[in-house]
Backbone:
């Protein structure tokens, strides 16, 4: 029985060690989640999901990572050694040493003599009680939890089988298709109706199924839309997979309280992360909260919670979700952000050494760490890879305009002749604090100094700065003050001086609390002796080069090869005006001068969420092993160079390129120098169709179009004869559409609109007013951002159809300047 005792004790100690490691990893995850209360729900969900996956992979990681030997507590070592009799001889370096066996006396006074096989005569069994009890208890609990989970999953499977498929022409099916298009979810899901679900639920691992209750037949259109957006957000995020993994981890590690707490926290965060996607799709927070409460109120007291599914509106945690939905300060960035990646990296860095811990030899388990001699031998056999970095002779100077960043809170752009480029960012006096986020594209690693040009309304309220969400910077008192009141202030680490930064993209956050505070420009440099002055300028003989390549915007359907000539050698970055239709359609292959082909994921979603919109994005690289370089810097010689783009995912659009050696420059809108295009359209000059009519404007020669009030409250565009406006564009490009409208109430604030025979867009939420107002046309299914139209040169067509009676439209502006103001245009 000696081998059985040794095996049982070793298994028990191994189980204890794994449980201790799991508890430590979950404790680290808890600290990370608690230390980032302002992070998004997607980031916090990623923390808990990653921690649970790491706990589930502990046995594999323990056996594959290099060991780190630790001594077990004395009571564990003594119990392990006492449970297994020691043999009479042990092998030591090839020699045999004989162990003396002493006679001991028990508490009763009788002698306990060793038997001939080394076991105590009074204890014929070598099995110790605590390992056996521990293993039996753990196996029993795991088996019971696995049986319960199997019953629940079978119940869900039966419920799906009994549900009825929803017909393609029904309102839920139409709402599901629109919601799927909004979130970029493919057709790999099914929609069913069930009498057994009290609230919408999502289940299914390989082919997701959305179950809606029978009572949803009476739901209004807006409730169906937000409900299906929420459930499809679960599908897009693959929340069912993470929930199933959490259930499996709880089944195996059921004795650990932190496992259950992590599972509960993960469920809360995944619901909130799905809420964030619904809000990002353009749903007003107040309206979404109202619909969520309406679904929750429809639950009956006898409706029990379902296991094995994702439910939308369970009362548990509902108050917290509604409060978060209505809180405009809540961050809603995706997991793939600087903060999310940094947090997950910290979790992995802490988990790796924990997983590598092993009991030392005196713990009674035959897990022997490598000796010093073995380690040295392995190191001697491993070739050393030398990395030589030749730093450029010239220092780095990056000049960043504050108005080019992402403005949050009470910050807005203003104009001043004394500011760089004539613009700056100002803290509005009537609003609270704000934040500017700037992207720093560093060409190489080094010690960097940071200067910021500000004009503070209050001397005792300087801005707060941080890098990559973690490193705090402080103004060290070094200043260069202009006669105009603007000042350059140097920011460094509070204690360590310059900031050591690696090559690539970093995020600088500037938080302003003082009303009236101004932020103009930022300089990031490796030159410790340089003092900026005035509005700042690139020193030495640096000559910025910009090579713009315009093209007809649209999806990249076949390989495209372009030629660009640069007059001077140096490091260049390639910017593209690109459009990613969804997370599964946002990349293509890129190569320069027949070099290696890399994957360029675009648009980059680090500082803002621009999915589905035309944005300028720096070329990045991702190889087949998942390594990323963002931005990708090219060492180009003077002369001509070829750029080749090859389709990788359908619907990824390209509408222009910029090749520049100005690493601080961030393009916006149409390329400089390209001619502005403004096309003014008079809707009353079009054929009004059958649901719109021309009305005469009060006291004016021009008229306007008005949606007739007769008929249903809301109309669908199918079957209508729309009003059609035909116009000619001199050049292709990306255009926005402005309209001068009147919407007297929210029941008459929408039209249907489409361009060049495309899909009908629900132009909903026109600003309500009794007077004519200009506003950008938007697609209600895509949010409140102005629509972006990739239009060719020549003849184009806009069609307008009735959606709500009483809505009026008097004039339209089609422009390729996304920052256009029709009021300013009319004043010119």
Residues:
């Amino acid at each position: 029985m000696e081998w059985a005792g040794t095996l049982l004790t070793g298994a028990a100690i191994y189980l204890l060690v794994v449980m201790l490691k799991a508890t430590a990893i979950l404790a680290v995850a808890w600290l990370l989640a608690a230390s980032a209360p302002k992070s998004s729900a997607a980031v916090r969900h990623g923390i808990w999901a990653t921690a649970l996956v790491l706990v589930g992979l502990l046995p594999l990681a323990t056996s594959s990572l290099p060991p780190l030997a630790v001594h077990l507590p004395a009571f564990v070592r003594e119990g392990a050694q006492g449970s297994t009799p020691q043999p009479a001889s042990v092998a030591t370096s090839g020699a045999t040493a004989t162990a003396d066996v002493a006679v001991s006396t028990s508490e009763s006074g009788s002698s306990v003599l060793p038997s001939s096989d080394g076991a105590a005569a009074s204890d014929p069994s070598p099995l110790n009680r605590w390992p056996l009890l521990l293993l039996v208890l753990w196996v029993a609990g795991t088996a019971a939890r696995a049986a319960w989970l199997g019953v629940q999953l079978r119940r869900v499977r039966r419920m799906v089988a009994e549900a009825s498929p929803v017909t393609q022409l029904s309102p839920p099916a139409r709402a599901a298709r629109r919601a799927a298009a909004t979130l970029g979810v493919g057709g790999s899901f099914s929609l069913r109706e069930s009498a057994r679900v009290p609230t919408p639920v999502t289940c299914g691992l390989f082919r997701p199924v959305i179950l809606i209750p029978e009572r949803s037949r009476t739901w209004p259109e807006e409730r169906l839309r937000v409900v299906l957006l929420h459930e499809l957000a679960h599908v897009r995020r693959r929340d069912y997979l993470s929930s199933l993994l959490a259930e499996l981890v709880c089944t195996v590690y059921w004795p650990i309280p932190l496992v259950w707490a992590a599972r509960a926290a993960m469920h809360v965060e995944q619901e909130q992360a799905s809420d964030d996607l619904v809000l990002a799709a353009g749903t007003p927070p107040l309206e979404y909260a109202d619909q969520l409460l309406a679904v929750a109120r429809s639950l009956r007291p006898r409706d029990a919670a379902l296991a094995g599914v994702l439910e939308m509106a369970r009362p548990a945690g509902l108050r917290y979700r509604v409060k978060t939905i209505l809180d405009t300060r809540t961050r809603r960035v995706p997991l793939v952000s600087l903060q999310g990646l940094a947090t997950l990296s910290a979790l992995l860095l802490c988990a790796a050494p924990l997983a590598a811990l092993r009991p030392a030899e005196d713990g009674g388990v035959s897990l022997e760490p490598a000796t010093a001699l073995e380690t040295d031998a392995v190191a001697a056999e491993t070739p050393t890879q030398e990395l030589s970095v030749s730093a450029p002779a010239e220092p780095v100077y990056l000049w960043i305009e504050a108005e080019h960043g992402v403005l949050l809170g009470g910050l807005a752009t203003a104009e001043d002749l004394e500011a760089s480029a004539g613009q700056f960012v100002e803290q509005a006096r009537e609003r609270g604090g704000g934040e500017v986020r700037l992207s720093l594209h560093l060409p190489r690693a080094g010690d960097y100094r940071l200067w910021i040009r500000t004009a503070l309304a209050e001397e005792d309220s300087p801005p707060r700065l941080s890098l990559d969400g973690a490193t705090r910077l402080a103004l060290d008192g070094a200043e260069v003050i202009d006669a105009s009141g603007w000042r350059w202030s140097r920011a460094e680490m509070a204690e360590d001086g310059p900031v050591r930064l690696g090559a690539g993209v970093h995020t600088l956050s500037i938080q302003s609390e003082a009303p009236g505070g101004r932020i103009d420009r930022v300089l990031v440099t490796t030159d410790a002796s340089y003092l900026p002055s005035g509005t700042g300028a690139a020193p030495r003989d640096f000559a910025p080069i910009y090579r713009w390549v315009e093209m007809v915007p649209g999806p990249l359907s076949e390989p495209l090869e372009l030629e660009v000539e640069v007059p001077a050698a140096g490091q260049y970055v390639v910017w593209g005006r690109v459009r990613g239709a969804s997370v599964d359609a946002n990349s293509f292959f890129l190569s320069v001068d027949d070099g290696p082909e890399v994957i360029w994921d675009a648009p980059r979603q680090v500082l803002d969420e621009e999915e589905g919109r035309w944005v300028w994005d720096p070329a990045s690289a991702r190889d087949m092993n998942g390594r990323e370089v963002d931005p990708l810097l090219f060492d180009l010689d003077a002369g001509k160079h070829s750029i080749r783009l090859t389709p990788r995912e359908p619907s990824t659009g390209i509408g222009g390129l910029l090749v520049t050696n100005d690493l601080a420059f961030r393009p916006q809108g149409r390329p400089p120098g390209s001619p502005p295009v403004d096309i003014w359209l008079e809707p009353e000059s079009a054929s009004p169709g059958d649901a719109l009519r021309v009305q005469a404007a009060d006291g004016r020669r021009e008229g306007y179009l008005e949606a007739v009030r007769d008929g249903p409250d809301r109309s669908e565009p199918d079957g209508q004869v729309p009003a059609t406006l035909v116009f000619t564009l001199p050049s292709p490009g990306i255009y926005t559409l402005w309209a001068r409208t009147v919407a007297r109430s929210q029941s008459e604030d929408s039209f249907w609109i489409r361009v060049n025979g495309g899909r009908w867009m629900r132009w909903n939420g026109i600003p309500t007013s009794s007077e004519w107002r200009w506003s950008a046309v938007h697609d209600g299914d895509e949010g409140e951002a102005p629509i972006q139209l990739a239009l060719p040169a020549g003849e184009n067509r806009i069609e307008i159809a009735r959606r709500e009676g009483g809505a009026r439209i008097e004039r339209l502006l089609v422009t390729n300047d996304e920052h256009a103001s029709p009021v300013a245009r009319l004043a010119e």
Q: What stands out?
A: DSSP finds 14 helices and 45 strands in the chain. Residues 129-162 form the longest helix (34 residues). The two ends are 98 Å apart (CA to CA).
